[in-house]
Amino acid sequence: MIRELKTFLTVERLGTFVAAGNQIGLTQSAVSAQIRTLEKALGTKLFDRSGRSATLNAAGQRALPMAREIVELYERMATPSADSGYFGELVIGAIATVQTGLLPDALVQLNTQAPTVEAKVVPGVSQTLLNSVDAGEIDLAILIRPPFALPKELSLEVIEREPFVLIAPVQIEGDDALQLLRDSRFVRYDRHSFGGRQVTRFLREQKIETRPGLELDEVDAIVRMVEAGLGVSLVPRAGLWLERAAHIRIVELGALTFYRELALVMRHANRQLPLQRLFRECLAPKRL
């Protein structure tokens, strides 16, 4: 019944059976079958269905916190105590720059100290990973610190601060970052992402109206677009572009520098579990 409870939590979070199926790798009919099984076991309907949407009814609202508690307890039962060795699986969510940045070294440390543990890395953008931690679908995530308060069930620790810089094609001259932003086409860091919201706030504070260019979320892809001469951009110092000779100019923001903060997020109830504690240690003392 744990599987059905997890599916129930995913449907509640995403709002439709189709979206839940896409998230957990099931067809809509399979999701419906699991929910019917759960409703039959409980003797009550849990959702009001209208078209494609699925909204919790009164019974579903009552069951929701208990379902979360049961899933959390089950996951804790499957975790070894500190003195019995490490085994099992650790599911780690990570944004793209973390996968190519600090995560590999941390996984080397994890493999050394817990060779029987299998680490599974789940890629995603920060908002998606945050939702997955909240729903108990992944154990923890390294993502951009959200610009809003988290639910009280979640724990957040900042592990790194990455300064934003302006990057420009080599053929564009000038060292005045604000003037370059006013005069050049702008390759925008997706304004709906956590990091992109910081860029939007910076531009608003500096009263800069940028020239239309293009918009995307991956930092390394943004750098490549700037290399191709498509405009200037504001990006954090993070990603594979720092490890190669990127054909761009970097203009520091000086006193106007703002930062993207990377954070480790997990459920409060899981912070002291052995594998989670070990992974935090593997991120290196200088970060936590």
From TrEMBL:
Protein name as annotated: DNA-binding transcriptional regulator, LysR family
Task: Write out the similarity annotation.
Answer: Belongs to the LysR transcriptional regulatory family.
Q: Which residues form a coiled coil?
A: none
Q: PROSITE patterns from the entry?
A: HTH_LYSR
The answer to whether UniProt assigns keyword 4Fe-4S to this entry is: no
Task: Please provide, alphabetically and separated by semicolons, the GO molecular function terms listed in this UniProt record.
Answer: DNA-binding transcription factor activity; transcription cis-regulatory region binding
Keyword Transcription regulation assigned: yes
Q: Which InterPro entries match?
A: LysR_HTH_N, LysR_subst-bd, WH-like_DNA-bd_sf, WH_DNA-bd_sf
Give UniProt keywords alphabetically.
DNA-binding, Transcription, Transcription regulation
Q: Report domain HTH lysR-type positions.
A: 1-57
**Superkingdom:** Bacteria
Gene3D superfamilies documented for this protein: Periplasmic binding protein-like II, Winged helix-like DNA-binding domain superfamily/Winged helix DNA-binding domain
